[in-house]
Input
Amino acid sequence: MGFRRVGLLAMARLPLFALAATLCSQPAFAEMDFMGVWRPLPRNQDGSGMTGDIAGVPVSDAARWRVQSWSPEDFDVTEWACRPHAWDYSLEGPLSALRVWADIDQATQRVIAYHGHLNQQEQETTIWMDGRPHPPANAIHTWSGFSTGEWDGDTLVVDTTNFNEKRDIRGSSDHLHLVERFTRTDHDTLKYEVTIDDPGAYTKPW
Output
């Protein structure tokens, strides 16, 4: 399947995803079925957006320093060698096939949680759909954070907090907060939008 570059909506910072494999059957009560394997539509193929390019992101002085102090030699350091890439890059990197599956309550056929696996450095995440609250700010922070999801019509809205300070998205801190929106616009296309907020790194959400 050929991929085409698409325009981004307001607040969107990542591109659309294109379907790459067989989709699972849709469980009862699911507003939109996006289970299966998806492959990203890469951006920056023209060489733009390279390392150190803030690209209009409203970063604070501290975040700008973190971004611009990065060097390729950092990957020679053991701590960095196996460190996952930033989430926004991971979703659109060349190796980032995204596989999604669900935990379904057999009695009610309701989705308890969605699970996602990225080939890019074998990253995994869980999106809880059972109404549980987010943990407090002083709870454990992890690479993938803690995600809850709810439906807004046919759009799955995912709210994620509790990232650790090593999960770097344009100089982000452990106050990183993502609101992601997944919308299946047709059989072969999954639209992904994200609003990124981090009072420890950005002067406003973007």
About this structure: DSSP finds three helices and nine strands in the chain. Residues 1-30, 45-52 have pLDDT under 50 and may be disordered.
